[in-house]
Amino acid sequence: MAIAEKEIPDRGKPAADARAQSVKPAFDELIHSPNRLRICAALAAVAEIEFADLEAAIGITTQLMSKQLKLLSDAGYVTLEKRPEKVGRPRTWAALTDAGRRAYLGHIKALREITRV
User: Fold this and answer.
1) What are phi and psi of 96, to 5 degrees?
2) What is the pLDDT of residue 20?
3) Does the predicted TM-score (pTM) go above 0.90?
């Protein structure tokens, strides 16, 4: 299912960032992978999201989600935080970093320029 077809729980959307207007178009090979692009799009819509909710929204396996998030985290685009729960196992939360948000927005602008007819 496409990301737009699944509901992503709103964990508090970040305030509109004035810096988004000043982001320059920049094609990003790391973000361009379909799964990573969908992950970044989902993360850009919320302040943070729990791993299982993101996994369900994107519709990929846990193993693939972990791999994609690790690549984005290693690049400094995503932060991952394990939080203990009162009952059960700790949960992992993901969020775009400022660098990740700039890279994602720059990539989207570059795609728009490329596809402008």
Assistant:
1) -75, 140
2) 62
3) no
The 10s digit of each residue's pLDDT in 5-63 is 444 444 444 444 455 678 999 999 999 999 999 999 999 999 999 999 999 999 999 99
CA distance 77 to 74: 8
Q: Rounded CA gap, 81 and 78, in Å?
A: 10
Residue 30 in tokens: 């790391």
Torsion angle of C-alpha atoms 69, 36, 100, 112, degrees rounded to 10: 180
Contacts of 67 (CB under 8 A, 6+ apart): none
Any long-range contacts for 97-100 (C-beta under 8 Å, 24+ apart)? 100/40, 100/43, 100/72, 100/75, 100/76
